[in-house]
Every structure is written in C-alpha cells, then in structure tokens.
Amino acid sequence: MTDQYTGPSAAGLRFGVVAAKFNAPIMKKLLNACLDALAARRVAAQDVELVRVPGAFELPLVARTMAKSGQFDGVICLGAVIRGDTPHFEYISAEVSRGIGQAALDTEVPIIFGVLTTDTVAQATERADPGKFNRGGEAAKCAIEMAMLMRRMRKRALAGTEIPRAKCLAGLGRVLAESEPPSHGISPSGSRTCAPNLVPI
What is the value of pTM for the model shown? Predict the structure, then answer.
C-alpha cells in the first residue's frame, strides 16, 4: 500500500529507529512500513539511523542513548511482544512501555512507542500490515508530528515569548491584592471570577 502524503515536508529532520529482531516476519513488515512513511514525508535516507536489538526489552536503553546523543529530532521504537503460556508477556510489556516513556521524559526528545502487544501472532501480523492497521507507518507519522511540535516549542522558548517569572509573580500579586478575597471564585457582586492567563501560549 503506497503512502500518499500531501502534508508538510519533514525534510531536514533526523530520526533514530530502534527495531527488535525477535518475531522477524512481523518486524520486517513493521520496519518497512515505518521507513516508507518517513521517506514519503521527505525524510532523507541519510537522516535515518537504524539500530537492531535482540528483543523488545532492549529497546528503551538504546532509544535513550540515541536521544541523549543530541543527533536526532525523534526516536522510533519498534517491536512485537506476543502473549504466550507464561507471565513473561506482562513483565516484558510493562517494562518496555515504562522504559520508553521514562527515556522520553529524561531526554526531552520524542521517543515513540511502536511496539505491538498482542494476544496472537495473527493479531500482530494484521497490525504490522501496511494495508491494514499499519502500526509501523503510524509510529513514523507520530514521530514527525512530535518532532515538529517540539521544534516549534523550543524556537518559541529561545525567542523569549514567555513572560519572565518575576514579572508573572508581580502581576499575580497585583491581581490578588485587587481582588480581596472572593471566596471560591465568586466576586462580591455574585459573578464568577477566573485567574488571568499570565503566560502567553
């Protein structure tokens, strides 16, 4: 299935892709769909670095290392964890999701959870299929969207669009002094009041 994309170009963005080797037939579909989606959005091949790891459990460490390097606008984690006869599925799924989420918070780089967690091989195959759920492609789209969002937010911060903290506190002090003291957001006239938006968004 060809990804017909007409949205904003992601040219110039750099992505790390960390893909597990385990469940190889499923991973092949997941990975190819992800790379195709990046290419369809004008991400150059030289701006994508692919690293393969043994299984899903190893994804968070490598993703965190790539994010910390400062070389990538986003990192995409791809894997497939399929339920078996033991509690192994629950342990792996929980640790992978926790690790990926924590890595993103620690590094402030978008790290995308493109890991299938299914009850059966058939479910995983269907979700990896580009003609059906296309989870690999969706992970790539999510990475691009988040990378663009974070880039805009960082540019805004560098441009100094936020009101300095001291000014915010001074303004809040004046507001509190001038509205002495309506209880539970109700003014003396009986109308409901609200706090001002001190930091422009």
Answer: 0.77
